[in-house]
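Reopening: Sugar phosphate isomerase/epimerase still failing for me.
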Amino acid sequence: MTRRVGTDTSKFPGTAELGAIGTLEKIAALGLDGAFFRSPFELSPVLDAGELSAVADAAADLDLYLEVGVAKVNPFATPEAPQIRALGEGDYLRGMERIIRSVAAVGITELWTATANYQFRIRGIHACDRFRTDVDWEDQLVATAKVLDRLAPLLRDTGAHLNIETHEEISSFEVVRLVEGAGPDAFGITFDTANVMVRGEDPIAAARRVAPYTRSTHVRDVALHRTDDGIGRFLAPVGRGVIDWGALLDELDRGGASCNLSIEGVIGMNAEMPLFVDDPRWWAAHPDLTGEEFAVVEALTTRYEQSAAAGDVPSVAELRAPVDSGRALAFITDSAAALRAALAAREPATAG
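Support: Ran it again with your exact input. Result attached.
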């Protein structure tokens, strides 16, 4: 399929000031192909049918794809989204139903969700919900699967797909199992190309696993460097990190992924997330991860460190420096150019 290249709006500079339609106009002016709004409340704070329809019409007029997020589906994380429960008058699932029906009514049917959160204000392994001690991660996955089962009839009724992100707390193995268990006719995957590496996964192998179910994406590259915490994963524009984009795109095509390519940028920082590989708790929490696959991450880390030592890519200090709005916008536009070049390089030459 022809891959359209757009952007996630949660890291798009000026979105709050521009509003949804203004953001779409800015995205179109930059030559991008679509928008992935993380929250439906960015389209309409009260889910007003007229406002939602106006945004959908604006996207269509600008020839942009339009994808929208719903809410988290791990019930141990939902207390951090009180507005969803309020929308459902105390019933979280009813709040999700209102969102899904509202956006599906205006033709938005590829919907994002995720399973938990990352607390950047906290240092250490407990910043990630995977390592909570009050509830085991496996119990969180079981509870999430039950929520998916309860949402499945609604999704089938509306023709929507709820696409679970390979978020930083969950492995691609686990996301695939959730989708297969709940039903790929109602659920899919939002493939985040950078987050899988937080879980120690080879991004190409992860792409191979998720491709059959991938219906949306968060696209960005990765810088890897050893730190006092283990290995630091930083975000980088496409083509300026360690990912082999030709190989990754090949895997998406080979697996039949039906998805646009939505660049998720950076805001304020390059989002350092540690792989605590010197901590036995980290390894115990990754039963699916093989030594062979993790060896790829180690090799990519060494390669990046060598390039950084040569001055060819940013050092750890540079990666940790604040990111201003100009660089945040350049992250998106530079990534789009690199993605399109990678896509063009894979197209068969036409006869003259």
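The chain has one domain: 5-222+235-268+322-346. If you still see a failure, please send the error message rather than a screenshot.
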